Fold:
Amino acid sequence: MVDPLPILPFRRPACGSVTLPGSKSVTNRALVMAALAKGTTRLLRPLLSRDSRLMLDALRALGFGVRLAPDETWIEIDGAGGIIPRDHAELHVGNAGTVARFLTALLVHHPDGRFRLDGDPAMRERPMRGLLEALGGLGARFTFAGEDWSFPFAMHTGGWRGTSIQVDASASSQMVSGLLLSAARAPGRVEIHCPGARPAFVELTAEMMRRAGVRVQGSVESGHLTVEPGLYRFPPEGYKVEPDVTAASYFVALPLVTGGSVGIEGIGDGLMQGDARFTSVAADFGIRREDTPDGPRFSHSAPPLTPDEVDFETFSDTFLTLAAVAPLLPATFKITGIGHTRHQETDRIHAVATELRRLRQGVEEGPDWLRITPDRVALRALALEGGATIQTYEDHRVAMSFGILGCADIRGDGEPWLRIADPACCGKTFPRFFDVLDGLRREAAR
Structure:
């Protein structure tokens, strides 16, 4: 793939449909659950991206049987019912927060394990302290090779020892999810106290556990959850992974940029992922949803609207989608509830603000908010002068969000004006994102 990648604008309104990859969040949770189950579990239509492959590599290194269909339409995991087959391993988590938090919590089950864990340089900056302190309370011991409470570290486990856990998960709800997933195979009932955790992805974890037969009670809002010990049980015909609803946000927003409409196959009611709420935000900006037998179709036929403020607290992965297309909107608006995104793949608030300023947009940023003042005239002037290259900070969501903006024919001549640096970073969750976007562009041009 060319780097930086020029984004070819749409000359005609969008008119096609897309099929989304499986959800990274669901795939990596299901992989851990399958490892803790007994016997073989088959996951259907999982996401095969860098993050999920890192999890698969780690499970193999720990001695779990892992098989992948030749066409990558399913994964089989041989679960050991809470036993970690090998007592030592070198494990690499990349820059995958789900792998880092879920895998580390899984390891605590080994009665005498010695494991070494490391990640990408960016992962060494991401918060782990709350989880590691909680696991220390269960008997795990850590030796840090660099900064305390950060990768790389060695972990010595002595089995799950304890029935009550206190975790500071204010920096990442994945810490709570990792403990929840692992607690199902604890010797007895486990209470998790997690004041300050954000609910959306913890609720996803709890719902997946319940659907697999493990009893989870309480709520993140109350700061108290309980898990009754049990085995994860999956349908014998296989567990179907939900499509990536966060990725859907890019195609929901595309008609704001190109006009026309986009269908998204396989996205129906009853999804567990909280990012499905983005469609409500899109409606506030003039996107209309029409339900069809193949899935919803999203169009934009009215002039764009601009609410004064949008709170993304419970579906923050999608705030970048809205922020990136903001230069095409008619009025200033504020995005709130996103403070924790400063500690994700990159400082997402600062990254988005920096790139919008590169596009000559008015931006103010606070600890947990952005205020964006669109300037389409300045954007067109920039495009006519040669455009800009968006820096992506090794963050797939920055790349995909601004990739949608680049589909706007700002120059009016169909020539690319926006380039995406390091487009391959999309391999974290959506390896074929730019191919899918090209397919929609070709379909519109017919």
User: Anything to note?
Assistant: Residues 13 and 258 are 5 Å apart (CA to CA). Residues 245-258 form the longest helix (14 residues).
